[in-house]
């Protein structure tokens, strides 16, 4: 199956001219698809009509999915043409584009910020959940730090609840009656993370991405979904995880 690409930034370069729809070209070459404002030389291209209003929505390509990428330009028959394909002789005109997650996606930025490890918050609950599930204490704390900054009453714009920011459907699936009760929330999240680790064979990058955007998005893209929220979240959790692992290491006496 060919990898499908869509770059929202390309649409901003297309002239409106008062029309209700615009044309972009889906071009195939060397088993790789791209988008272009005109047929690409050497590629097999199909025109796609895009409604102006829908074109303003970054995920207008639907299940074809947007990914990050650069834009390249040249002049053909006196007309400026833009493409998402890196074609020899074409000029790069844009930095990598990050797209926002669709509104119905679970993907979110997280309410916590990077900062020093906090070992005094819900320490008993984290240790209990780690012992019960086998999920590392440092990983649970990194998720809680990124998700809510350890606020047990946190409520995200997407509807995620509690210190581990469980979505209501996920809380129900893991039998968490009250996500705002810290012990329940941490226990449910730990069991969910344990299942994600089994699903993704211990790949913590995919575990973090799935915790953020859902397993459906990770499986659909075959990796970290190309959403700005998810990519930033994964980076944040990895950084926090390293900090918590270091902070939780037993202190050495220096004798010997």
From TrEMBL:
Residues 126-223 form the Transglycosylase SLT domain. Residues 1-21 form the signal peptide. Keywords: Signal. SUPFAM superfamilies: Lysozyme-like. InterPro entries: Lysozyme-like_dom_sf (IPR023346), Transglyc_AS (IPR000189), Transglycosylase_SLT_dom_1 (IPR008258). PANTHER family: MEMBRANE-BOUND LYTIC MUREIN TRANSGLYCOSYLASE C, SOLUBLE LYTIC MUREIN TRANSGLYCOSYLASE-RELATED. Belongs to the transglycosylase Slt family. This is Lytic transglycosylase domain-containing protein.
